[in-house]
Amino acid sequence: MKIIEHNLERCTVLSERLDRTVVLHGSATSKRLLEEENVEECDIFCALTNDDEVNIMSSMLAKRMGAKKVLTLINNAAYVDLVQGGEIDIAISPQQATIGSLLTHVRRGDIVNVHSLRRGAAEAIEAIAHGDTQSSKVVGRAIGEIELPRGTTIGAIVRGKEVLIAHDDVVVESGDHVILFVIDKRRIRDVERLFQVGLTFF
User: Fold this and answer.
1) Which pLDDT score, from 0 to 100, does residue 112 have?
2) The CATH number of 107-195 is which of 3.40.50.2300, 3.40.50.720, 3.30.70.1450, 1.10.8.590?
3) Are 83 and 118 a contacting pair, CB within 8 Å?
4) Which residues of the chain form CATH 3.30.70.1450?
5) How many whole angstroms separate alpha carbon 123 and alpha carbon 186?
6) Structure pTM?
């Protein structure tokens, strides 16, 4: 993992506290810096500053330079619909995050966290995989083999303290927290059913 931070003092603090992270001093909107750090090999580029313009510009630049996916924090909810689905793959508005605690209670299955995206037009879902290869549709299967509902992608898997980027060959294990992005909200029930454990597990 690499972090780009423009504040030198903050860079020093981060480098002292983070063990397996490279902390870079510079601007995420610097094309030269992104080239030097081989952004085209980046699985996911996250722009998480408090400046919407910086986040949007750095994400668009990273995507055009070859980053596979870009996730952008946008504080102004009016900007979210303007950029989502173009060069920016995932746009998140913190103002919508509080809706997640309410949505979690109305979702079925092993859905433990929900965030509303694009002012409610899409959702980011955290689901826990349970069971075994007989009782689960996801456990023991590589991500590329899982039949996901249309408009749904797996972004990452959280396994204990480890975060795994969702490559097709990553195999889902029981207890994994799977982060999914659902563009078509009509498919959310299908996602819930995907993570429900069959009766053979009990």
Assistant:
1) 53
2) 3.30.70.1450
3) no
4) 107-195
5) 11
6) 0.54
